[in-house]
Write a structure and sequence with these properties.
Blueprint (H helix, E strand, L loop, with lengths): L1 H14 L9 E4 L2 E4 L12 E9 L6 E2 L11 E2 L8 E5 L4 E11 L2 E6 L5 E4 L4 E5 L2 E4 L3 E9 L2 E11 L13 E2 L17 E12 L9 E2 L5 E5 L4 E6 L4 E6 L1 E7 L5 E5 L3 E5 L5 E6 L5 E5 L5 E5 L2 E5 L5 E6 L3 E6 L3 E6 L3 E5 L4 E5 L10 E3 L2 E6 L3 E6 L5 E6 L8 E4 L3 E5 L4 E5 L4 E4 L11 E2 L5 E5 L3 E5 L5 E6 L4 E6 L5 E5 L3 E11 L1
Parallel strand pairs: 6-13
Antiparallel strand pairs: 1-2, 3-7, 4-5, 7-8, 7-11, 9-12, 9-43, 10-11, 12-13, 14-46, 15-46, 16-17, 17-18, 18-19, 20-21, 21-22, 22-23, 24-25, 25-26, 26-27, 28-29, 29-30, 30-31, 32-33, 33-34, 34-35, 36-37, 37-38, 38-39, 40-41, 41-42, 42-43, 44-45, 45-46
């Protein structure tokens, strides 16, 4: 009788979890597996409809007067007219503020967004500090925009004079075209040259620390990550949290079919569908968790100093001792695993095919592309290896010890960041370009299908570099960025160590 009551109580716990994403779940083979309860979509709140960029620091809010004795607790902001240009002088700072116009229940009001908006510039003459303030670095002409919630404010042209010198004469800034907008045939700028800038589509705060990797769905419709509080988050491309689920390990991975793999509490590997529902789980032990998914939806995970291969149905195919494993890249018939000391290639059945140990070991992420494996070493070298044999195809100097891992683009380019500059190589080892000095951080670059390369620079900045190596834009402040990834729809996802995730898109400027 006691057993029946206990079982009924546990069933009640599962069924009555309501909207608590942390306690919901189901029994599977006699074991309770936590989560998920689907996240309830909250009603739409106030909608940002425009963003006004003004000269000077943010003004203090004024309290809206009311007929009552006590003033309204809701402060209001009155935006200034948006300037089209301003002047500055090296080394004096220059300040802007951003006021967002919101609408709620047919009522409109302004709110200061200076500290939360992202600020974009089209060159490195200005460097963003915080709260709308920029440091002047070089004399010249710079265009400034602010962005939040898919809305862009500006641009404002800043004519920067040298110290005690005259300000230069600058051409007008390009006009920003909102995402999805198309110039009409009668538009006077229709055939003018274009450039690109960025826009922040949304910002999501997971309210916990982060130190792993982002995983993006092949469809581009979702992004997944695990925070320090042990929760796996599934966020839609529109910024809605689809689910949360208890998880372990460092990061999830996503298979070509869209299946999500993550370490479950207690040392198991679990497979989820796009809504966060459990497909299967397999005990493998605790460790880093899944590292990569193969073309056939198989998954390769690290647990107890072993590399473990699991098929798409949850059956363990093989395991091999591999202490210190950091990363795995896969192809149709081969797996290449990276440790601090070098690379090990294995067949689909787990047989070692070849090994490679560069002098000094491995620095950052490795990358497979075009039948080759690319790996950087802390001694400042980039190596290209034949993926089938491990034979060295070529090696090149990067330009200092690499700060980032290796990335590859659809334009047959290989990218790696040195101490300050991003270096690009073609597949035969020719150097395509070296970027301007950006003081890069240790985050692997992300590459869009149109050839734009996104890198993280010091001070919480993102930079977009064109296929010819020129700088498109720099934006701040995104905090201490830990990971970024580009989706199949060319959206850029960025996440900081504080667990704040952003989605950005590149948009066209019309001159």
């Amino acid at each position: 009788m006691l057993v029946l009551l206990l079982g009924a109580a546990m069933a009640g716990l599962v069924l009555s979890c309501g909207n608590n994403n942390n306690n919901c779940g189901s029994y599977f083979e006699g074991q309770f597996i936590p989560g998920p309860c689907a996240t309830i979509v909250p009603p739409l709140g106030a909608q940002l409809i425009s963003l006004n960029v003004c000269d000077g620091p943010p003004a203090g809010p004024t309290v809206k007067p009311t007929s009552s004795v006590k003033p309204s607790p809701v402060p209001t902001h009155t935006p200034c007219p948006s300037p089209t240009s301003t002047t500055a002088m090296v080394p004096n700072p220059v300040n802007f503020n951003a006021a967002g116009l919101f609408e709620l229940n047919n009522s409109k009001y302004y709110k200061d967004l200076t500290g939360t908006a992202a600020w974009f510039v089209n060159n490195n003459n200005l460097v963003y500090s915080s709260n709308g303030q920029f440091t002047t670095v070089n004399p010249g002409c710079t265009c400034v925009t602010a962005s939040s919630g898919g809305i862009t404010g500006g641009p404002v042209l800043v004519s920067i004079a040298p110290n005690m010198g005259a300000a230069p004469v600058c051409s007008p800034c390009p006009t920003v075209v909102p995402p999805g907008a198309v110039a009409t045939p009668s538009s006077p700028v229709e055939s003018a040259p274009t450039s690109r800038t960025g826009v922040v589509m949304w910002r999501f705060d997971a309210r916990s620390g982060f130190d792993g990797r982002l995983a993006v769905a092949p469809s581009g419709k979702a992004v997944y990550f695990i925070t320090a509080d042990g929760l796996l988050h599934g966020i839609s491309s529109s910024g809605r949290e689809v689910f949360t689920r208890f998880s372990g390990g460092g990061s999830p991975v996503v298979a070509p079919s869209g299946a999500i793999y993550a370490e479950a509490p207690g040392g198991s590997l679990m497979a989820l569908d796009a809504s966060g529902r459990l497909r299967w789980f397999t005990p493998i032990g605790t460790g880093t968790g899944p590292l990569a998914a193969g073309p056939d939806d198989s998954v390769y995970a690290s647990a107890s100093d072993n590399l473990i291969a699991v098929d798409s149905g949850g059956a363990v195919r093989w395991r091999i001792a591999m202490p210190g494993i950091q990363q795995v890249v896969t192809s149709d018939d081969e797996i290449v695993a990276a440790t601090d000391g070098g690379l090990t290639a294995l067949s689909a059945s787990g047989t070692i095919q070849w090994t490679f140990a560069p002098p000094g070991g491995v620095a950052g992420d490795i990358k497979g592309s075009g039948g080759a494996i690319y790996v950087a070493s802390p001694k400042g070298m980039l190596y290209a290896l034949d993926a089938a044999t491990g034979n060295e195809l070529w090696e090149r100097e990067i330009g200092g010890s690499p700060k980032t891992g290796v990335a590859a683009g659809a334009n047959e380019r290989i990218y790696v960041g040195g101490i300050a500059k991003l270096a690009a190589f073609n597949l035969t080892g020719g150097r395509a370009f070296s970027s301007i000095s950006l003081a890069l951080e240790s985050v692997t670059p992300a590459v869009s299908s149109n050839g734009t390369v996104f890198v993280v620079a010091s001070g919480g900045h993102l930079a977009a570099i064109a296929p010819d190596g020129t700088l498109r834009w720099i934006a701040g402040n995104f905090g201490s960025v830990r990971s970024m990834a580009v989706s199949s729809t060319n959206a850029l996802y960025v996440i900081s160590k504080n667990g704040i995730c952003w989605k950005l898109k590149e948009i066209i400027d019309n001159n």
